[in-house]
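DEPOSITED CHAIN:
***
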Amino acid sequence: AGQGVKIRAAQSIAIASYLGLIAWVMAWIILLGDVAREHISVWLVLFVSPLLLPLRGVLAGREKPLIWGALVSLLYAVHGGVVAWSDPDQRWLGLVESGLSLIYLVSASYFNRWRTIANAQT
């Protein structure tokens, strides 16, 4: 029973942080950042569409989309770190982006690992 609780918790955290990352990037572009109004749609396509590609599989808890989501989220961790390092006015935006990305990376990794171990034991 304890193993199942860990697996469900890791999956819930992974899904919440991935959806949070999508929402955060959209909010940053539309509301919080200094993106010119006429360029918002272009920035949304460039920054949000990579996160949408593995979304269906991430929500379903499938192994390969979770891994692809982790690889994609690394780009956002790096982007957030660069912004936090180089732009004092938007530092907090970058730190939140990096934080959500890294939370997803860790929780998705544990979810995949624990589920694989649990399936091997049955």
Notes: The helical segments are 2-32, 40-52, 55-60, 63-86, 91-121. The radius of gyration is 16 Å.
